[in-house]
Amino acid sequence: MALYDRDYIKNNISTQAQNNSFSQEREESGDLATFIKQTYQLFAGSLLVGAAGAYVGMGIPAIREYYWGFVILEFALIFGIGFARAKPGLNLFMLFAFALVSGLTMSVMVGHFISAGAGGIVANALILTTVAFGGLSMFAMNSTRDFTSMGKMLFITLIVIIVAGLLNAFWLHNPWMQVGIASVSAILFSAFILYDTQNIIQGNYGHPVDGALALYLDFINLFTSLLQILGIFGDDD
Q1: Cα–Cα distance, 100 to 14 (Å, whole number)
Q2: Looking at residue 82, what DSSP letter applies?
Q3: For a surface tag, which of 58, 177, 225, 226 has the fewest beta carbons within 10 Å of its beta carbon?
């Protein structure tokens, strides 16, 4: 199951005091251009660490046996990033530790397809995710529309998806419901890419680690959703 836990409410800037706080933190890492550059560098680094974790995890059978333990660890690391964001060194360690653990848990799903001889599905999902992420990011950067106002709607949809996913995973086990959940999730995290990208380029995050984490979660959840969709419809091939 994808990691869906996101705390986006804190990213909605509602008061001047919050804006001033974010501005002061950004001054420590340079101007806005430097802030954006650092954010995307950390995002790229997180993807590399996550990919390495997925590769290594496929060779560790214990990952599947203790899968839910690793998922719980992912959530713990996300909360840890929140507490450590203002602590240089520790915040980077927490970010890359989360990326590594998320890659290890991702290896269960990726390994399932590869062991079944469906590595092409994984490659297609990765290509689609990369193209979609790049296209949506460029659109958000150049669009005159304000996507940062979508936070509350996206968060509500996220909660619905979480509840539906848990119900289907533990009780219903309906493949068609899973297709629906994965499809809505793909649309949802595509919207989150627009939302997070504009928040980053407008400087609405207090630290590059926050922006990098948001983009990383968007990417891996979109990838997971597309992988599930392609995998379900590819079962008949």
Answers
A1: 34
A2: H
A3: 177
In degrees, rounded to 5, the angle at the alpha carbon of residue 3 between the alpha carbons of residues 103 and 81 is 80
* Neighbouring C-beta atoms of residue 162, cutoff 10 Å: 17
- Mean pLDDT, residues 13-29: 48
- What's the rounded Cα separation, in Å, for the pair 50 and 226? 17
Q: Residue 146: count other Cβ atoms within 10 Å of its Cβ.
A: 9
Residue with tokens 């419901």: 177
Spatial distance between the Cα atoms of 218 and 126, rounded to a whole number of angstroms: 13
Q: Which pLDDT score, from 0 to 100, does residue 237 have? A: 47
Residue carrying the six token digits 């995002």: 43
Please name the residue that has the structure tokens 């289907």.
Answer: 168
As a whole number of angstroms, the distance between CA 134 and CA 80 comes to: 29
* Cα 79 to Cα 121, 137, 237, distances in angstroms: 32, 26, 41
Question: Position 206: which residue type?
Answer: G
Residues 196, 226, 219, CA angle at the centre, nearest 5°? 25
Computed on alpha carbons and rounded to an integer, the radius of gyration of the chain in Å comes to 18
* Exposed/middle/buried for residue 98 (C-beta within 10 Å: 0-12, 13-18, 19+): buried
pLDDT of residue 9: 37
